[in-house]
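Forum: Protein Structure Q&A
Topic: Joint prediction for protein chains with partners

I've read a bunch of threads here and the consensus seems to be that you should model interacting components together rather than docking separate models afterwards. I'd like to see that in practice. Below is the full input, 970 residues plus whatever partners are listed. Could one of the regulars post the assembled result?
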Amino acid sequence: MSLLEVQHVKKYFPVRKGLLQREVARVHAVDDVSVSVQEGETLGLVGESGCGKSTLGRTIVRLLEPTDGEIVFEGRNISKLGAGKLRPLRREMQMVFQDPYASLNPRKRVGTIIGDPLEIHGIGDAKSRRARVQELLRTVGLSPEHYNRFPHEFSGGQRQRIGVARALALQPKLIIADEPVSALDVSIQSQILNLLGDLQEEFRLTYIFIAHDLGVVRHVSDRIAVMYLGKLVELSPAEELYERPIMPYTEALLSAVPIPDPDRAEARERIVLTGDVPSPIDPPSGCRFHPRCRYATEVCKQVEPPLTDYGNGHLAACHHPLNVDQATLERVRAAPESPAEADKSALPVDSSGPSNP
Amino acid sequence: MGEPATGTEFTLDTAAELAQVEHGAIQGRSPWYLAWRRLRRNYIAFAFLGLFVVIVLACALAPAYASHVAHTGPNANHVLDTITVHGKQVPVVSPGGLINGKLVPSLPIGPQWFNAGGRYLLGADANGRDVAVRLLYGGRNSLVIGIGSALICIVVAVLLSLIAGYFGGWIDFVITRFYDLFYAFPVILLGIALGSALAINGFHHFGITIESGSIWIPTLVISYVLIAYVGRPIRGQILSLREKEFVEAAIAQGARPWRIMVSDLLPNLASSVLVFFTLIIANNIVVEAALSFLGAGVQPPTASWGTLIADGQTLIVTRPWLSLAPGIAIVLTVLSLNVFGDGLRDALDPRAKVRIEH
Amino acid sequence: MEKAWHGLVGDSNPDNKLLSYTTQQDVVQQIKQGIPATFSLTIGASVIWLFFGILVGVIAAVTAGRLSDRAITILALVGISMPVFWLGIVTRYFLAEKNTWFPDGEYVGLTANPVQWAYHLILPWTVLAVLYIGFYGRVLRNNILDTINEDFVRTARAKGLSRREVLTKHVLRNSLIPVVTLFGLDFAGVLGGGAILTEKVFDLHGVGWYAADALDKFDLPPIMGVTLYGAGFIVLLSVLVDLFYAYLDPRIRPT
Ligand SMILES: Nc1ncnc2c1ncn2[C@@H]1O[C@H](COP(=O)(O)OP(=O)(O)O)[C@@H](O)[C@H]1O
Ligand code: SF4
Ligand SMILES: [Mg+2]
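Posted by a regular:
Agreed with the consensus. Here's the joint model:
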């Protein structure tokens, strides 16, 4: 059984206007996303900023209530639980935030920040909590002497370590790290990534690691999910995704990743995505990527491509898949359609062909 | 009415970050301490704080002054008495009447400074009451009303705004409409409408009884009419704090709303609330004076700086000090609070935007 | 409001008119009679406070940190710390009573004698304007300093526009927007009876004076009437301010 199953989750934000705050439109921040996360793995979640990654993450830890769909954590549907019933579950999943400045309360001392979750859940007494916080500080590479300091006395990287320590305090199973290194200098980024890796081994953690490009997640992820405008457009084991992306959007994201090897960098074509990301209030018809896709045809404008399993746990939603051999293509097209279930099974039991002729 | 852009951009501890840049790291020092260091170097602000403290102390010592120096109470009439000035007996209020064929109005004694052994330092009013004594007692009332109404107003405004800003949705909607309602009335008019109605009958509802002459009436009226002016900007700040990730972190840990309000939101509001508090006291002292001047605030014979100005107005040509002295007292008090509040804001929260209404 | 109105009017009043307790005069009629004085006072004072408020704010901002800025800052604080009615009493005493340079209160109709109209109003205009000059000066100064540090201003400077051009074309225009909101609401407030103190002190028989006079007799209906009249103006002016905003910023145009 997977630790977490996200099934057809939607999160729409109402756009309200006027004196009576009428709902005039909806932001389709997350639109029918299904994915499951196995215990101990790291799922990378990638997409341009504004595509709904944070919203998905926040919905999973139930900072937001999904508009529709189910979130099943350890076999239990938590998508509709109220604040009271959620409280004990909060110990199991925690979040590490993007902004090292806004994520720590500037008025609290570090010891309080990390110790708060313990106090909230009534774990231990003041003395044992203090000891635990100091141990956590050591675990994340800070010093127990930092207990009485204030956040403003730390650098961005150190603050992020404090954020990690806070997330660890309750010994959660799942940690959603929402762009934990995007705000940091490149030199610091790898330190935090290494720390997260070490902690995963030590505490058998499961991660959902959010990033806005494919560069950072490469070395930390087992599998990678790519989102575009609220949709899950590709899901694949990490190495496979980098070798042969199927969805053109993934290809474009990949072409933006700097390659250390100059020969390969030379050979590769840099695909520049033109145009702005369309508004999630009124997403494009058919394939949401079509206004910016260089392979787009008429069918892409009309028909939304289903998420299709191309084997080996590699799923993508595209009418004109890249890097797929003829045999796979034919096999996939023969199968009946049920894309939502697809990512659960390794084999293309029931995927259908796209409706292009 | 549409909500005008509040523009409360809240930067996380600009003051603390600045102090950091200015002095390098100081281990374990709270943002409060760093702000204090900045404030400490603002000598002007401190000088004016000193002035305010002196005024408060002087008014607090009113009874001592009354009994040991002036030898009279704030409401004691001395229309028919005489005092000794330079060995001569002088009436406190010279009776008017037909003198040499001309109608002369009765005239109270002018400022004696220290010629009468401390009595009638600033002269007497038409009832022969010692103006200096009334100035100090009146100051006590003005300060109590100003500070008290500021306190009530801030507490209620913070509470309402916390609830509105944290829960959002329809709760926020109701509270902001409630605020809007206040903005539809000129503060002074609303104040006199409420103040005069209560001054006639007192307040006898919900098991609470306030007599018509009580200084609780102006205190409550002033705090009530200004709630929205304090509440709206505070709500704006709460809304922007609410978006901060540390609040999400607290929710993700399972913290209850109350805990988040008290331990995450309130401490981050504290600096602007403190600035507000200072400036609102200043504002409310002026509002009290205005209401009392018009007759809708403190009721006679109780003194306040506003009623003193009103009392003196009829004698302004012959005895200008009756009105000048309480006015100067107001200006000095309000100015000292405004200057100190400005310094406090610079030190604590350079972005807080406060509007004073009167 | 409807309900409050009927409560005040009472049943014994067939014409549905709000009557004063003491004089039995029609309150609406009395308010109307006060309008010329109140409008004259408000419009004149607002011209003064807008002009000097902007002048003072701009001077303080362009000389930020220098002596003139400090002096203006302190004077502005003194201005907003002075109760308007006390300032009125004092100026009336010194300039119209002790020295008789100005007429001692009262309103003269504009149509009756324009020169006397202005002459009688100079002191009240000035006294009423002082507080707002202090306010607007401070608000504008801070707005300008905030705006100057924004990117688009730096860009304009980098494009080679002169300091003066940038200041008038970009900075001042943007900094004035919040001042316009303030002005709309303050103007409405003063027009709606907020000048009660000035009118009372200078014996200008305007709408505010009517309320103050009623207050002396604890005659409630005029007070309520004037309060509702004030609310009407404020609501009207806030709608206008909203529309003005929509005009300035097409993104928030009402749909
Ligand atoms: N609380 C909210 N209310 C309204 N819209 C929101 C809210 N949070 C996010 N959005 C919108 O949802 C979309 C997805 O946002 P987000 O999940 O933050 O994207 P990402 O994390 O991928 O950058 C964006 O268009 C954003 O503006
Ligand atoms: S479906 Fe069409 S538009 Fe969408 S990614 Fe594939 S080729 Fe491009
Ligand atoms: Mg995000």
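Confidence is low (pLDDT under 50) at residues 1-15, 21-25, 350-358 of chain B.
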